[in-house]
Design goal:
The protein is mainly alpha-helical and 93 residues long. The protein has helices at residues 6-16, 20-47, 55-92. It has three helices and no strands.
């Protein structure tokens, strides 16, 4: 992951912060939780020879990872909001 310089971050975050749910869902669930869930499934099936992957287990795992992804997305949103507030308050002085 790369980190934007302060000026670019302010411009990008002004656009991204307008839709909090979309940001949290995209970055938390789609970009973090689902790939992590797929990796966990591959490890459990291939490496640990776990052949008991059932539909119920897939659904429960997906639900757990979605909630974890939402938490991750909310933390990322809060971190970016904090950085944005810090940068905009120092720029306005």
């Amino acid at each position: 992951m790369f980190k934007l310089n302060d000026t670019d971050f302010i411009h990008v975050w002004q656009v991204l912060r307008k839709n909090k749910f979309l940001f949290v869902f995209r970055n938390g669930c789609l970009n973090w939780a689902m790939p992590a869930y797929l990796i966990a499934l591959i490890f459990s099936a291939a490496i640990w020879n776990d052949n008991s992957i059932t539909f119920q287990r897939l659904v429960i795992g997906a639900i757990v990872f979605i909630f974890a992804g939402l938490a991750m997305g909310l933390m990322l949103y809060a971190t970016n909001e904090k950085r944005f507030a810090k940068l905009t308050s120092t720029n306005s002085k």
